[in-house]
Amino acid sequence: MGARMATTSQPGDRPPTFSVVIPTFRRPELLAEAVASVLAQSRTDWECLVVDDGGGDPLDELPRDERVRVIRRPASGGPAAARNTGIAEARGAVVAFLDDDDRYRPERLELAERGLADPAVDVALCWTSWFERATDELADPDRPSAGRRLDGDIAATVLDATTPHLGSTAVRSTALVRFDETYRAAEDVEWWLRQAERSRVATVRQVGCELRRHPGARANGTDVAGRLAASERLLRDRADYFDAHPRAEAFRLARMANLAVGAGDRAAARSMLVRSWRRHPSKLAARSLLRTWGI
């Protein structure tokens, strides 16, 4: 991790139940809203670890609370490194994640506790929804929601569709695996594969985390080329897994094709979609392939 990180505020002697890790890089206004959503939790037995990934911005706008600690990295290492820094400092029995541009609903940590009620479960999930403006009110929690229903041993299926957002994820600290800091993109997908191989999962079918729609980067600011390269690397690094799980490889290739389309490289997208179709035919690949031809 390099030099010892500087921290602000002194936590109490009693370890909290939850440690919420928020990596951040030069988005102080959005960060303040994210931290405020942690302060608004119905549970109070938490600590919030804000990891400044070398941004160096003053964080004077953060809500004042002794349970909030700021950990400053001397240089940017990307989301994986920032999360690992927070994990290393976490004192809670459960570690939860929140991106600096998102926010929790007040019952988020309660949902994590419900998901971990079974001692055989190490990872608790909730569902997510989207919002755009800071003034958007929370959606009606009783409104029907949808999301992946992942329970038990999910190692064989977790990559068959979009992996659960880290903001919806809470993990027992004793079972939590570290992120691979050499991945500057797709680090969450790579992490999920390793975490799912060692942990049982439970999904609480209720929205607990809200993801912000905005024109800026969703997370690490990595360009399309970097994101494509990371996914290609993942396919190589875990060729054993993808050889045995064609649906997962097909989905990853289809997602990569969508990135290529967004970058204007339709030829590359078509190549990826053909590879996807050959591994596991799907409506997603077929529809995306037609779009690359303007159909």
Features:
295 residues; alpha/beta; Spore Coat Polysaccharide Biosynthesis Protein SpsA, Chain A; 2 domains; nine-stranded mixed β-sheet; 9 helices; 9 strands; 35% helix; disordered N terminus
Layout of helices and strands, plus pairs?
Elements: E1 6-7, E2 18-24, H1 28-39, E3 46-52, E4 68-72, H2 78-89, E5 94-97, E6 103-104, H3 108-115, E7 123-131, E8 169-172, H4 187-196, E9 201-212, H5 224-237, H6 239-244, H7 246-262, H8 266-279, H9 283-292
Parallel strand pairs: 2-3, 2-5, 3-4, 7-9
Antiparallel strand pairs: 1-4, 5-8, 6-9, 7-8
Helix pairs in contact: 5-7, 7-8, 7-9, 8-9
Tell me what you see in this structure.
The protein is α/β, with parallel strands linked by helices and 295 residues long. It folds into 2 domains: 207 residues, Spore Coat Polysaccharide Biosynthesis Protein SpsA, Chain A; 69 residues, no CATH class. The chain is 35% helix and 18% strand. It contains 9 helices and 9 strands. It has a 9-stranded mixed β-sheet, sandwiched between helices. Strand 2, helix 1 and strand 3 form a beta-alpha-beta unit. The longest helix is centred in the last third of the chain and has 17 residues. The protein starts with 5 loop residues before the first strand and ends with a helix. The N terminus is likely disordered.
SSE pattern:
EEHEEHEEHEEHEHHHHH
CATH architecture call of the largest domain: Alpha-Beta Complex
Q: CATH H-level name of the largest domain... which superfamily?
A: Spore Coat Polysaccharide Biosynthesis Protein SpsA, Chain A
For the record, give the distance between the C-alpha atoms at the N and C termini, rounded to a whole number. Answer: 50 Å
Task: Fill in the CATH topology of the largest domain.
Answer: Spore Coat Polysaccharide Biosynthesis Protein SpsA, Chain A
Largest sheet: 9 strands, mixed
Percentage of β-strand residues: 15-25%
Quaternary structure state of the chains depicted: single chain
Counting structural domains, the number is: 2
Secondary-structure content class: alpha/beta
Which word captures the global form? globular
Supply Rg. Answer: 19 Å
Sheet with most strands: strand arrangement: 1-4-3-2-5-8-7-9-6
Helix content: 25-40%
User: What would the average pLDDT be, to the nearest integer?
Assistant: 90
- Number of helical stretches of at least 4 residues: 9
List unreliable stretches of 5+ residues: 1-10
Which class of the largest domain in CATH terms? Alpha Beta
The beta-strand count equals 9
